[in-house]
Design a protein that fits this description.
alpha/beta, TIM Barrel, eight-stranded parallel β-barrel, 8 strands, 44% helix, 13% strand, binds 3-methyl-2-oxobutanoic acid
Length: 285
């Protein structure tokens, strides 16, 4: 990537331009400074500080228990690392469902932490909240289809939009979010044709995670991509391009062997002592 391009921060305007030019936006999750830095260096367009941090980083079984306080720690770290990428803070469960005031306050806290926008889950039922946030000047992405915060209601992590009727409901949700001022929509776990149908009927960018190729950009969870997710959830849409789990386990195990066999530390890892000081220390002992 050229320097001029690297320096130009991605904005909602850039994302609209990408769509207009038919160029796909590249989106990943990140929860820490190094991962955000590496994704940014690689030219990723959008980094989601997802509430998936509950599972990927904190080891919870689902996303429901992560708090705003925890999310803001991750958001600040990612915002420091993302020089060019657009940073999206994910509103956690119960941070926006209860009232407009909560939604605006918590979304505002993500912006104060360095995020460019926020994302929230749900369609028509959260559209008034999305309107409240956009009226407060906050850029909001809607997230529909499989919505992990509605795990109980959806009966697990299940593919959505599998029938024409279900897809029509998803489109109504998407339109309500667009009308409420959302700058983009994320579709999760939909057959490609259903996602394409929703995208064709909206004018804002429509991104997908597990929603096929006929959308304006792809999101993956970085732990799925890098191979360091520890847990049982293994969606079929995941593209695993590295084995960080194996690399890290191997490095720790080599370190353990070296310590136990006294191979580490070796002279190249030591700080040297001036020879005069060495003599005087020897004399003192
Ligand atoms: O938290 C997250 O990473 C998400 C994706 C699953 C879309 O919301």
């Amino acid at each position: 990537m050229g320097e001029a391009q690297a320096a130009r921060k991605v904005t909602t305007h850039t994302l609209r331009e990408l769509k207009a030019k038919g160029q796909r936006a590249v989106c990943v999750t990140a929860y820490d400074y190094p991962t955000a830095t590496f994704a940014d260096r690689a030219g990723v367009d959008l980094i989601l500080v997802g509430d998936s941090a509950a599972m990927t980083v904190l080891g919870h079984a689902n996303t429901l228990s992560i708090t705003m306080t925890e999310m803001l720690v991750f958001a600040r770290a990612v915002a420091r690392g993302a020089k060019r990428a657009f940073v999206l803070g994910d509103l956690p469960f119960l941070s926006y469902q209860v009232s407009d005031a909560d939604a605006i306050t918590n979304a505002g806290a993500f912006l104060a932490a360095g995020c460019d926008a926020v994302k929230c889950e749900g369609g028509r039922r959260v559209a008034p909240r999305v309107r409240a946030m956009t009226d407060a000047g906050i850029a909001v992405m809607g997230h529909i289809g499989l919505t992990p915060q509605a795990l109980g209601q959806q009966g697990g992590y299940r593919v959505q939009g599998k029938t024409r009727a279900q897809t029509a409901v998803i489109l109504d949700d998407a339109k309500a979010l667009e009308d409420a001022g959302a700058f983009a929509i994320l579709l999760e776990a939909l057959p490609p044709e259903s996602a394409a149908f929703v995208r064709e009927n909206l004018s804002i960018p429509v991104y997908g995670i597990g929603a096929g190729a006929q959308v304006d950009g792809q999101l993956v969870i970085s732990h799925d991509l890098l191979g360091n997710f520890v847990g049982e959830v293994k969606p079929r849409f995941v593209s695993r391009l590295a084995s960080v789990d194996a690399v890290v386990t191997e490095a720790f195990s080599t370190y353990a062997d070296q310590v136990r066999s006294a191979q580490f530390p070796a002279p190249e890892h030591w700080y040297s002592l001036d020879s005069k000081e060495l003599l005087s220390l020897a004399a003192a002992s």
